[in-house]
Queue: 2 jobs
Job 1
Amino acid sequence: MAIRASCLLLLALLSGLLSASEGHQFAAGELRRYVAETKQEVRWRSAGDDLRFTTTLSFELSCYVEAVDEKQATLIWRVLELRATHQGPEGQHLLDSAQEIGEEDPLLGDLMVFHMVPLTTVVDLRSGEVQELRGHELLVERLNRRHPAPQNTHPPPPAPPPHPPLYPPTVQNPTAAPPRAALAAQAFAPERVQVLFTRWLSLPRDGKSSLSLGPQVEGAAQLRWEGSRFSIGLDKDAPKPRLQLATSPTPVSIAITALEGAGEVRLDRRGILQTTSGSYTMDLAVDAMTQGVEQQHRVTWQLVLMARTPARE
């Protein structure tokens, strides 16, 4: 989960491109509908095992423009429908909100916390940078409701007593924290949720720059823009970026040994975002206690405008 989260963070930091002097154009009251799709293929090798996993995720998104001024726009996003699949050695998992399939799936079901939750982003029109995110608290609340606190249980007597039960029924412990409360707070922290929208909305700066790979990663990648396209790679003369997932007594660290990707973003002449797409391949060397792990990741993504309803006059 942590390795996949770090890859999603990298993916979220990659953006499509347009001349930064143009910027986004929004009109208060307009409504847009986008489809966002991501596919991740992973090859995992360790101790003689060679495993392959494929995960796909598709969001149908609404984007309502609540307010616009000269510098920024306030956008309200909702996931109208979501579909996800995961294929690995243990079999296939499927989640489909429209068909009401997989909502209790142990691997994919928690994605349902995004369904229909209004997430508000305040976006800089010139850069596409997400300056503020609101609504993430509901994501935390939903995940905690899916995984409530442990319950006080009392074993039943061997036979039904002839008088009212001496054992109280099972009740939720009001003082116990939900088992995933800390994970939920971390996973849905504003700076983490923001990167999902940064991926879709950011606009380029000129030339070549350093690309942060996340707050916990030591080292960076290089990002280069040419027109509406970008490319990404590692500086061959710099140390490999590293991520420390855990320390003693069970240390786990990851080195990014190879990274290469490209993509683009397209806005029409009015400044309306039409598509953003890209792909990258990344090799990881994982040191988990005394067991080494090699991973190869290939990720592709796209965001496509499906419909736009102008604001009413």
Note: Residues 1-21 have pLDDT under 50 and may be disordered.
Job 2
Amino acid sequence: MFLFILITLNAQTIPENHERWDHIMIRESAIWKNILVNYNCIDITSCWEERQKALNRVIKEFSTSQWVDDAMLMLICEKAIVDNSIDKAILELKELQKKYPTESTIVDGWHFQRGCQINETWLMWAPSLVVHDYDGNIKKTFPYDRDSIIDNLELETLTYFDHLDRYPQKTTDIAEYIIVLMYLKLGETDSAIKELENFLSKKDFREIRTTDFEASKKPTGGFIESTPPFDVAPLWRVELASCQLLINLYSKQKQIDKLIEVSNKIVTEYSPDGWYWQINKDLGDIYAKHKYLKEANEQYNLSINGIKKRSKIQAARIQQLYEKGLAIKSKNFANWEDEALKAYKSSIIEIENLKRNLNE
């Protein structure tokens, strides 16, 4: 009877007539395994031949799949490194934006040596669902319901990816973010700022915040509140990363009025309560750098309060996982809130020191 209740409760969490994320990943593993070929190369140029072949395989053999825009994005951005052709890549990315205006991607960044960066949470969970043999055939699968029970962590994973399916990181937006990073690599700061200003003028931070915040408060929204594998911040959004980047560029160019304007937008629309505590901390640093001491102190306080609220939420979650055998107590266990705060101890000390320095 207890087993039946667990299965029933878990089934109620999964929307009807909605194919589960783990089933989709298993079914399409023959496609997406190609985008992982030589993905972890420190220097993409040293392993490009095999990786290029794998990405082209997705584009040519699976041209109607959901992975083709990911493969094209990676191919453009990484070929730019190998061929030293960033100018050409920017033009190609703009064409890609026109071709895929609504599709989503698991790519969330670009590095001028390693190439495209894939969502760390996806990397944490998707590859573990399937084992392939040497010929690339599926040898074994690990769907979440393989033992007839979907545990809490698996449910949180499904909730996380279902949320991203409904409110995705769009390929066109990630391409825009990478275009900016490429302009900065070329030293064209003014072009980067212009791209960011145009991109952000079309975004509503309050809507993004509300959507993610409400989803994080669901019984299985833990991974939206504290996204794996780092678990210290909510779901990453390209709009927010773009806004932070723009603030840093304004700071370097000493465009203080614009810096304050964009900073206020983040504070009022995205993290007025310290929900994204790292943002408040970073803004405090920038305010302090430009001698806005009162504003810096306010952001540091918001950051610390955000950490404390987050720790209480995580404490309750960890206790529930412990009661279900999915977490363990540390050797020096005192209480669950203390356990949750351990991950933020150094950050709190740093922020407190920064606050003290404001008055010196």
Note: The radius of gyration is 22 Å.
